[in-house]
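Justification of computing resources. Each target in the renewal requires a structure prediction run like the one illustrated here; the chain below, 147 residues long, is used simply to show the kind of job we budget for.
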Amino acid sequence: MRELVRHVHRMTGGIGDLLSSARHDQSSRTVRSNRSGMQSSSLATIYLPDYIDPDKVAVLAEIARSGSISAAGRALGLSYRRTWELVEELDRSLGTPVVETAGGGGGGTVLTQAGKAVIERYRAIGMDTALAARKHLLALHRACANK
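Resulting structure tokens:
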């Protein structure tokens, strides 16, 4: 099914932008919030447990990409301390570590299975939500186009 929401983060661009992006492909990007100064990009608020928030998921995704907590913080415009606090909040809330040292003496950080699961499930929630909203947004677009 090719007609899935291309980028969940583009939803605030208006109904027309959402509909045009919904016709392309299936890729998704983490939705971010304003709590740490990152730009908001969510069409609607999805109520999740406090321990799963867009900033934390963005930090995990960036750690997975860069292999470093400090590099993840820099890429997201966060201090090392704030980046580490978000990771620790997830660890405490989930009761298991979401990152571990890469080993080999060279430093670096990798995600644990729990950390990978947080990203995967969060993105799945975003995609499912976008798909559920799509038919309603199309109907709204049609209703507005008829005026």
